[in-house]
Write a structure and sequence with these properties.
Structural class: alpha+beta
CATH architecture of the largest domain: Up-down Bundle
Largest sheet: 4 strands, mixed
Helix content: 40-55%
Number of domains: 2
Distance between the termini: 24 Å
Radius of gyration: 17 Å
CATH topology of the largest domain: Glutathione S-transferase Yfyf (Class Pi), Chain A, domain 2
Number of strands: 4
Order of helices and strands: EHEHEEHHHHHHH
Shape: globular
Strand order of the largest sheet: 2-1-3-4
């Protein structure tokens, strides 16, 4: 497998975590968004959408991190990222979707570049934009974590799930955009618990080959 990704990309980060949790190795192929390599002819031939990550498997290229992670879950079901019970799976998917559908897409790099270049916003305004949507999503996640009296150290149950795979990169982004995390003790505790696991540590942006 070849993983085309960028160290600081939240979607790339979540896929690295998922691969590590599944115990799968992939060749790391950096795509430098700062140099707009994702818009170059070579990468667009792999992914016409021009977004990371992309996972090349047996000559086929898979795109969109939710689809790739679902593929991983289907092809490599152990350890599972989703609970067996249908209602529990829906809860985990909902936590992941708050990040994947409601926070990340409107804070993605191409949105922020539009704010900077087309709308002329400075970095303070960009950070405020990001903070608005991260805070809205984290308010909901914190409430849902508080309401689950049976969970352990993670978002659901006593082992990492899809929800943690999505949440941890978003916490990393929140710190980058200077979001105050003090109101979210449960989210911070989940992030800390995940940070104790090798699968999460090895996926962190700062330890990737293209970081720096």
């Amino acid at each position: 497998m070849k993983l085309y990704n960028f160290f600081r990309s939240g979607t790339s980060h979540r896929l690295r975590i998922a691969l590590n949790l599944k115990g799968l190795e992939a060749q790391y192929v950096p795509v430098d968004l700062r140099r707009e390599e994702h818009l170059g002819e070579a990468f667009l031939a792999l992914n016409p959408q021009g977004l990371v990550p992309a996972l090349e498997v047996d000559g086929e290229v898979l795109i969109q991190s939710p689809a790739i992670i679902e593929w991983l879950e289907e092809r490599h079901p152990e350890p599972p990222l989703l609970p067996r019970d249908a209602q529990a799976r829906a809860r985990v998917r909902a936590l992941a979707a708050i990040v994947g559908c409601d926070i990340h897409p409107i804070n993605n790099r191409r949105i922020l570049e539009y704010l900077r270049k087309q709308l002329g916003q400075d970095e303070a305004a960009v950070n405020a934009w990001c903070g608005t949507w991260i805070t809205a999503g984290f308010d909901a996640i914190e409430a849902l974590l508080a309401a689950d009296k049976e969970r352990g150290d993670f978002c659901f149950g006593r082992a990492p799930t899809l929800a943690d795979v999505y949440l941890v990169p978003q916490v990393e982004s929140a710190r980058r955009f200077k979001v105050d995390l003090a109101p979210y003790p449960l989210i911070r505790a989940v992030d800390a618990a995940c940070g104790e696991l090798d699968a999460f540590r090895r996926a962190a942006p700062g330890v990737q080959p293209d970081a720096g």
